[in-house]
């Protein structure tokens, strides 16, 4: 499915066995274990998660970053078509990737990915990036061209911040859904409580709460 494997395989040591399985094996195993018919979209999300856990391509390759953000946001994967990732899709993709495998020093985003985020944000009229996309900030005032007109500056500031706040709210809603899903997950081994706590903390952080 995702052609994201090769010499840049980085997180393999000590990994769970299923991370080495191909998608058909994973699909058959899950359907056998749980007596279900696994939807294609769910399989795509599982494979996206495995790509994030086992490679650094989400952080280094623009094609992988865009495809994985789209899939994690619910889009179907079609290798024949390149779909751009919108700002809200990138915000959610980065959020979910950080939950799956918190980035370290070796998982810094490439400049090509950062520039893609900036260009897409500008094309969507988002001058102030939401917190989760702050990695792409340049430090410059995105509204500098209105600095000599306080009234226009104030109006534009309100507009661009409202779009950023909307994305922030959507990410918090997505995290809340994950907490609910984890709470109802029937695990054979272990507990989902730790992950639920991490998600709850992320929700508070996303919402700007203490």
Distance between the termini: 41 Å
Task: Report the order of strands and helices.
Answer: HHHHHHHH
Largest sheet: none
Briefly note the structural class of the backbone: mainly alpha
What is the 3D shape?
elongated
How many domains? 1
Total count of helical runs of at least 4 residues: 8
Give me the oligomer status: single chain
Global Rg: 19 Å
Mean pLDDT score: 75
- The residue fraction in helices comes out at 55-70%
Strand content: under 5%
In the predicted model, the low-confidence regions spanning at least 5 consecutive residues are 1-14
> What's the β-strand tally?
0
Describe what you observe in this structure:
It is built from eight helices and no strands. By secondary structure, it is mainly α. It has one domain. Helix 4 packs across helix 5. The protein is elongated, with a radius of gyration of 19 Å.
Helix and strand arrangement:
Blueprint: H1 23-34, H2 40-54, H3 57-60, H4 62-72, H5 87-100, H6 111-123, H7 150-183, H8 193-206
Helix pairs in contact: 4-5, 5-7, 7-8
């Amino acid at each position: 499915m995702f052609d994201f494997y090769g010499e840049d395989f980085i997180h393999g040591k000590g990994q769970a066995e299923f991370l080495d399985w191909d998608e058909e094996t994973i699909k058959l195993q899950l359907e056998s274990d749980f007596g279900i018919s696994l939807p294609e979209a769910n399989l795509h999300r599982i494979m996206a998660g495995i790509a994030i856990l086992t490679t650094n391509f989400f952080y280094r390759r623009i094609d992988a970053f865009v495809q994985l953000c789209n899939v994690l946001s619910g889009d179907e994967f079609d290798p024949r078509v390149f779909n751009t990732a919108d700002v809200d899709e990138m915000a959610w993709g980065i959020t979910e990737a950080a939950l799956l495998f918190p980035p370290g020093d070796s998982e810094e985003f490439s400049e090509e990915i950062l520039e893609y985020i900036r260009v897409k944000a500008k094309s969507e009229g988002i001058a102030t990036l939401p917190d989760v996309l702050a990695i792409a900030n340049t430090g410059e005032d995105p509204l500098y061209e209105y600095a000599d007109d306080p009234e226009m500056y104030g109006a534009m500031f309100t507009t661009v911040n409202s779009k950023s706040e909307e994305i922030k709210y959507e990410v918090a809603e997505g995290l809340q859904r994950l907490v609910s899903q984890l709470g109802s997950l029937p695990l054979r081994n272990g507990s989902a409580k730790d992950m639920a706590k991490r998600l709850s903390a992320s929700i508070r952080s996303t919402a700007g709460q203490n």
